[in-house]
Fold this sequence. Notes:
Rossmann fold, alpha/beta, GMP Synthetase, Chain A, domain 3, six-stranded mixed sheet, 13 helices
Amino acid sequence: xxxxxxxxxxxxxxxxxxxxxxxxxxxxxxxxxxxxxxxxxxxxxxxxxxxxxxxxxxxxxxxxxxxxxxxxxxxxxxxxxxxxxxxxxxxxxxxxxxxxxxxxxxxxxxxxxxxxxxxxxxxxxxxxxxxxxxxxxxxxxxxxxxxxxxxxxxxxxxxxxxxxxxxxxxxxxxxxxxxxxxxxxxxxxxxxxxxxxxxxxxxxxxxxxxxxxxxxxxxxxxxxxxxxxxxxxxxxxxxxxxxxxxxxxxxxxxxxxxxxxxxxxxxxxxxxxxxxxxxxxxxxxxxxxxxxxxxxxxxxxxxxxxxxxxxxxxxxxxxxxxxxxxxxxxxxxxxxxxxxxxxxxxxxxxxxxxxxxxxxxxxxxxxxxxxxxxxxxxxxxxxxxxxxxxxxxxxxxxxxxxxxxxxxxxxxxxxxxxxxxxxxxxxxxxxxxxxxxxxxxxxxxxxxxxxxxxxxxxxxx
Length: 461
């Protein structure tokens, strides 16, 4: 499965849930409960809500929209106030058409009425995921159960109480697989922030000069020439860049000069603002000294910050053992940086301009993957396959049940995993899923993050 590139500038529509039902079944109470404050007027008199209202709700830190509707007018209201009934119908239909999922609310005390059955027929004609909520189900006067409601022909039926906050966990579980999360819109002309980092005297400034085509930065055959992090605007083949050249970073024990200490701190802070990072390594250093602890520590920092990492092996025009050297570095990286396998690597000569175009292509490809979103339906099909191949482990005799997952953000790709006993899910199993995502969705070298969230185990009730 190879993902299409997610275009910069795309905006993801936030998931929207519409509350539909006849008047006075508790839609506005449920709306207020979900958004966490009293926005909609609630009264025992039917028909108080006349327009549909939208507000943002949250499941943990995950936002989505709720639409409260006036409800579909029953025959009695239609006969007494035909114009009002018509407007209520139009408002409710507009809410349905603008939503991603519909929650059909019925009254657990009044039971299923003939008009509820008419609404059910109407909703079956809509091409929307639909769940049925039995409100007021905790009342001693409640007349129906979930089994009674299945006769309406919907697969998902949940008993809730908007007044007493019951059944909300089950409601969230039902909508979670469908959630799509809104992301900050990235303007198409926004420059890609590219940081050039590495040890002193590996050719970082020479590389920046070669990219922009002018001797903009001071270079010399000695370490420590660059001190401040220097930002330069540059454009290549229509893609705007913000190039950031940084001071060389040595092991902390070797940094004695106060100015150098400040320069190193400035370089490390650059990671907070960069998107892609090119880690430059000097190919002329003896092979047993390549990828010293300092290089690996810097690569680790890039990954922990969630930035895209590209390895540039510089000065390859001065060596004659390139294939051996690249194999050695590849093995070192995959062993020492196992959480981000197959980091893109390119052999270059900044001085001669060799392979710079290939390096830029790898940067842009990695940036596309860094911005990529996996569709929720495809993601959960993949999860079912991974669980079947290797189920989650058991803890204290009870197997951890992973219910579903969704991608909550990009830059880097971040996934929420919902399961029982969330705190007991081993890191090794998360690595199994992370490596599977990387392999099956063709995301080599991309940092992948997981957020493990707990859900109630229905088998423990």
